[in-house]
Specification:
Bound molecules: adenosine-5'-triphosphate
Pfam family, one: ABC_tran
Number of helices: 20
GO cellular component, one term: plasma membrane
Helix content: 55-70%
Organism: Planctomicrobium piriforme
Strand content: 5-15%
Distance between the termini: 47 Å
Strand order of the largest sheet: 6-7-8-3-9-10
Largest sheet: 6 strands, mixed
Membrane topology: Multi-pass membrane protein
Protein name: ATP-binding cassette, subfamily B
Length: about 600
């Protein structure tokens, strides 16, 4: 198999993992969506009234035309025709009025439901624990919030009420046809399933063609995105021709699916039309024969009225077919949305959780064993104690368990065995918010949110004034940082802080942590290399940040380790050495070897 086929295959696999776009109607799900309309019961009930009126109005309009033809026109009664036309005009005006309000109310109801659903989903997402976020792809979370909710919105705003109007219209048209001529009505009833079957088959085929089309489009966009992001690698490895060939294949693939969609539409739409024409021919023959009978109870006007009603009976079949398709899409979206809403957080604080008032910052691990997957522990029987105000440096090879320890201190995960105590309280029994309020975290990636420098620093203390922010920056020895920024505190940091240098980003993260004045500080030192002047600055700021609080530092700088009260050396999830820097050097073990490498690299 050549490379083009391999890539296409792997992309196909990726796309095959796309979630199902449709699922059968499920009244449990529909009921659940409808519970979101409860706060808007008045609006929803008014909407149902307009739906009822709409289903009556269209047949009534048609009936009025037939009545005028059959009555005043047949009698050549000019006055009657004028009154009839006026009556029709009034009825038609009221029809438009009701249609306007039906659409408006449906629009408002759909928007309200979607807005509430989005908020419920966002609040729920924030309550989920770290493991869920690690296991779930961001794209999936975003599509819950966007395309799935959008499908539900269309379901509420359009599908539900349009279908009700159409079904109502069909029922009333059926009654009218029965009244005009029950035999002709039976003929119409016989044709309805044929039309429904053709329509259903058409939609199924179209839906499968459209799915192929969507998937091929996803392959194109995925390849395009990769090509743009990875252009440097492409050019460096002179892969342009190869990539162009792969892209060409995908583009041809997409084109063939597009043709298939058009071919399906081109085949079925005339077929549906033909079906209607056949129906008209049959109705003309049978209806005409019945009217022409000398003792026929059916007048010409009745036949005209019957034609109109038959049209009102058949046109909803096509519309309902379309809506049915949309409804199945909404079902798939709703099912995914609700299954996310029903995902419980991995754990919750006990009801009587201890609220930590003012912590001293004493932390103790007692025989802690932990694994992201319980069957595969990454920390084994870890025990240590950190006195208030101490700095604990975590050192070890990559994957040795340093970040896992800070994940446990921060109560992002719970251990499988052993206990973690803060101020003597088992973390399991501690109220998480009260812990997090007194905890500061500075991560390696320096995550900044979209907004200004001020917004980002205030994240640590929403009530902080500008004076407090400036004071914190001064304490960190980086007051001049603001002068170097184009708009001072007002400077936009761009997406993820993209408009700032990595040193500036780190300082802002330090300020964000310091302004909250945490009792426990967690710091994953950045490994990115920065110039020595910035490095010295960060070190000074770091010393300020660490002073007076219990700190856990995943240390990458020798100076941080030297100043630590305790260095914990990890190897394959176990603490293999512990002590101060000098003591560990004397041991001449794992740490001494790591140190040698540090010094050589440094
Ligand atoms: N979210 C996760 N899900 C599953 N396994 C994980 C997760 N995070 C880390 N691990 C695994 O746990 C082990 C310890 O990882 P950890 O991140 O604690 O190491 P580390 O010492 O901080 O490494 P580094 O210095 O590279 O950041 C590794 O084997 C890693 O593959």
């Amino acid at each position: 198999m050549n490379q083009v086929q391999t890539l296409s295959r792997s992309l196909t696999k990726h796309v095959e993992r796309l979630e199902d776009r449709q699922r059968p109607l499920d009244f449990r799900l529909i009921g659940r969506i409808l519970t979101f309309t409860r706060p808007y019961a008045v609006q929803r009930n008014l909407l149902l009234v307009t739906v009822l009126l709409r289903s009556i109005q269209l047949p009534a309009l048609t009936w009025a035309v037939a009545a005028v033809i059959n009555g005043p026109i047949a009698r050549k009664d000019v006055n009657g025709v004028m009154w009839g036309a006026a009556g029709f005009a009034v009825l038609s005006l009221s029809t438009q009025f009701v249609m306007h309000y039906r659409q408006l109310l449906a629009l408002q109801l759909g928007e309200s439901v979607v807005c509430d659903l989005r908020q419920a989903l966002f609040a729920h997402l924030q309550s989920l624990r770290m493991r869920w976020f690690h296991q779930t792809r961001v794209g999936r979370v975003i599509s819950r919030m966007t395309s799935d909710i959008e499908d539900v919105r269309i379901g509420v705003q359009e599908v539900l009420f349009v279908t009700l109007v159409q079904v109502g219209q069909m029922l009333i048209a059926s009654c009218a046809m029965l009244w005009y001529d029950w035999m002709l009505f039976l003929m119409v009833l016989g044709l309805a399933p044929v039309l429904w079957l053709i329509n259903h088959h058409f939609h199924r085929r179209l839906s499968s063609d459209l799915r192929n089309l969507r998937e091929s489009f996803s392959r194109i966009t995925a390849t395009l995105a990769e090509s743009v992001v990875g252009i440097r690698v492409t050019q460096a490895f002179v892969r342009q021709d190869e990539n162009a060939r792969i892209f060409g294949d995908l583009a041809e693939d997409h084109s063939s699916y597009n043709t298939a969609v058009l071919r399906t539409q081109g085949l079925f739409l005339p077929l549906l039309d033909l079906n209607s024409q056949v129906f008209i021919v049959l109705l003309l023959i049978v209806g005409g024969y019945r009217v022409l009978q000398p003792d026929s109870p059916m007048a010409v006007g009745d036949l005209v009225g019957f034609f109109f009603m038959a049209n009102l009976f058949f046109s909803p079949i096509l519309i309902i077919g379309n809506q049915y398709n949309q409804a199945m899409t909404a079902m798939a979206g709703a099912e995914r949305l609700f299954s996310l809403l029903d995902t419980p957080p991995e754990w919750s604080d006990p009801k009587d959780a201890i609220v930590l008032e003012r912590m001293t910052g004493q932390v103790e691990f007692r025989h802690v064993t932990f694994g992201y997957d319980a069957a595969r522990p990454v920390l084994h029987d870890v025990s240590f104690s950190a006195a208030p105000g101490q700095t604990i440096a975590l050192v070890g090879h990559t994957g040795s368990g340093k970040s896992s320890i800070i994940n446990l201190v921060a109560k992002f995960y719970l251990p499988q065995q052993g206990e973690i105590l803060v101020d003597g309280h088992d973390l399991l029994k501690v109220n998480s918010d009260s812990l997090h309020h007194q905890m500061g975290i500075v991560l390696q990636q320096n995550f900044l949110f979209y907004g200004t420098v001020r917004d980002n620093i205030r994240f640590g203390k929403p009530s902080a004034t500008d004076a407090e922010i400036v004071e914190v920056l001064d304490r960190l020895g980086c007051g001049d940082l603001l002068n170097n920024l184009p708009d001072g505190l007002e400077t936009q940091v761009g997406e993820r802080g993209g408009t700032l240098s990595s040193g500036q980003r780190q300082l802002i993260c330090f300020a964000r942590a310091l302004i909250a004045n945490p009792r426990i500080l967690i710091l994953d030192e950045a490994t990115s290399s920065i110039d020595s002047a910035t490095e010295a600055r960060l070190q000074k700021a770091l010393n300020v940040l660490l002073t007076g609080r219990t700190s856990f530092v995943v240390a990458h700088r020798l100076s941080t380790i030297r100043h630590a009260d305790q260095v914990l050396v990890l190897d394959h999830g176990r603490i293999v050495e512990r002590g101060r820097h000098d003591e560990l050097l004397e041991l001449d073990g794992v740490y001494a070897r790591l140190h040698k490498r540090f010094v050589q690299q440094g």
